[in-house]
Amino acid sequence: YLGLYDAWSSCRPEEEGIVVAYTSIYGHTKEAALLLAERLRMKGAKVVVYDLARCDMAAAVADAFRYSKLVLATTTYNGDVFPFMKEFIHHLTERNYQNRMVGFIENGSWAAVAAKTMQKMLEGSKNLVIAEPIVTVQSALSATSRGQIDALAHTLCP
């Protein structure tokens, strides 16, 4: 118990693992998130995936704090991010989310701004390492975005 209390009080992860949290409108962002999760599992990583529009938000938030890495995947929605993703990030920041590696997958047909928006929402969080590359899906997965997903998987799980 003392070890857990020490981790919680210092905002350190309880264990190594990766949470992939996504929102998807037409299924393409979901496909990208699941492809990343598959690549990470193939590398031996412990991965938990949440569809933020359908899951227990409290469980997703708890796992984001439990594990050492987080990937946020969402669509650009009215020049912003999808509302469930916005709510999820709000839950993280109001609880002082910090000391983690965070990766981003954004989807947008012509003006993808989701990654920039999510980064801005997390600005007040301390000691976040942004995993490169930031994956950009333009509507559906392409050879380019699949390559970016492979590169992100390598960054998250070398």
Give a description of the structure.
This protein has 158 residues and is of the alpha/beta class. Helix content is 42%, strand content 25%. α2 (28-42) links the parallel β1 and β2. α2 packs across α6 (143-156). The longest helix is centred in the N-terminal third of the chain and has 15 residues, at 28-42. The chain is globular, with a radius of gyration of 15 Å. The termini are far apart.
What portion of residues is helical? 40-55%
Q: What class do helices, strands and sheet pairing give?
A: alpha/beta
What's the number of extended β-strand segments? 7
Termini distance? 31 Å
Mean pLDDT: 93
Number of helices: 6
User: What is the N-to-C succession of helices and strands?
Assistant: HEHEHEEHEHEEH
Task: Give the SSE map.
Elements: H1 2-9, E1 15-22, H2 28-42, E2 47-51, H3 57-66, E3 67-77, E4 80-81, H4 83-94, E5 100-107, H5 114-121, E6 128-130, E7 135-137, H6 143-156
Parallel strand pairs: 1-2, 1-3, 3-5, 5-6, 5-7
Antiparallel strand pairs: 3-4
Q: Can you describe this structure in just a few lines?
A:
The protein contains six helices and seven strands.
List the main descriptive attributes of the protein structure presented here:
single chain, 158 residues, seven-stranded mixed β-sheet, 6 helices, 42% helix, globular
